[in-house]
């Protein structure tokens, strides 16, 4: 019958690519798909589904994108390996005590995420960057028609959310003092792509005088009472967000910094960056978000991840990547996807980018909005150089950073061989 793997699915865009990769490795994949269609599924139902699959198929391992504590728990009871790969940050479930199970093999794409959680399961938590399904993209790109070229060609494009539909802070009422604290933190962090400090600032400011005046432009030590009150108000307004059963470490400041304020910061930065670019260049946004805050940007509807998005990446002269701040050091999936389509990437600086790609030869980055505007002007007027960079990025991705490469490494670290 051969070796089997159970994949627990919830409709992550990565799941089809990872399943294909497992199948190319010779594994027979059994998919659990109920949560793709029923988002309100109870943990007890999830456990029953995985329990049944393990009993029926005796898989080599169970796999999921991101971490499911209840899947981890039932795998631990069976003594079955549970492999997971994060593709998002924050992933709140990593605070669960379930990450300590010996049967876990947890792969985290962001080194900062890895360094935070590895101490709770030193031997079984790993840092593993993301990847692209270049073979699938090659097939889509080879089918580009004249109509596609006319429809999807852009000077500067961005495909993605503006985060207004994901921002919990926009759906609650907060006091003026709390709103002032949040705005101060956002204003301090935005535009600084080299250091992520909101959580550290919150820790200092809520301890009362833990930071020096001016250390965070957001506030000084005299404001600590306002920040303490802000945290209380957030927890009272969103109790379900802060509710954790025996977390491995206190999570309140992390949630406030990376989920609540982090998502609001993503919204602010994306709107302001697109507006600034649109003052000088032709910018096209493909999104399903509310775009009422944009000025001068050409707005198009959201597109199919697997059939349309690769064409945009390939045909755009500049593909913009704006990493959300909760991804502290790592490369988001978007960078690998663009490069896997042969597209030119202009990304905000991330600490791990130079470890995987050569800046200026395979990718371009910016550390300030001014640098972004200048580099866009340069590469829009230097066609040949831009195309060479895109070609090198594609070659690096297709030769080293496909899901086949990543999954083989995952299996080697998890099970050996």
Keywords, please?
about 425 residues, alpha/beta, Rossmann fold, 3 domains, 6-stranded parallel sheet
Describe this structure in words.
Helix 3 packs parallel to helix 4, helix 8 (176-189) packs across helix 10 (224-237) and helix 8 (176-189) packs across helix 12. The chain has 18 helices and 12 strands. Helix 14 links the parallel strand 10 (316-321) and strand 11. It is 46% helix and 13% strand. Strands 2-1-3-4-5-6 form a 6-stranded parallel sheet, with helices on both faces. The chain has helices at residues 15-24, 34-37, 43-57, 69-78, 111-117, 134-142, 146-152, 176-189, 198-207, 224-237, 239-242, 252-278, 309-315, 333-340, 353-356, 369-380, 383-400, 403-414, and strands spanning 4-8, 28-32, 61-65, 81-85, 104-108, 125-127, 154-159, 283-287, 298-301, 316-321, 345-348, 364-366. The two termini are 20 Å apart. It folds into 3 domains: 4-131 and 404-414, 3-Layer(aba) Sandwich (Rossmann fold), CATH 3.40.50; 134-160 and 302-400, Glycogen Phosphorylase B (Rossmann fold); 175-246, no CATH class. With 417 residues, the protein is α/β, with parallel strands linked by helices.
Total discrete domains: 3
Helix and strand composition category: alpha/beta
Helix content: 40-55%
Count the helices. How many? 18
The largest sheet is: 6 strands, parallel
Mean pLDDT: 94
Strand order of the largest sheet: 2-1-3-4-5-6
Mind telling me the CATH class of the largest domain?
Alpha Beta
Could you say what the CATH architecture of the largest domain is? 3-Layer(aba) Sandwich
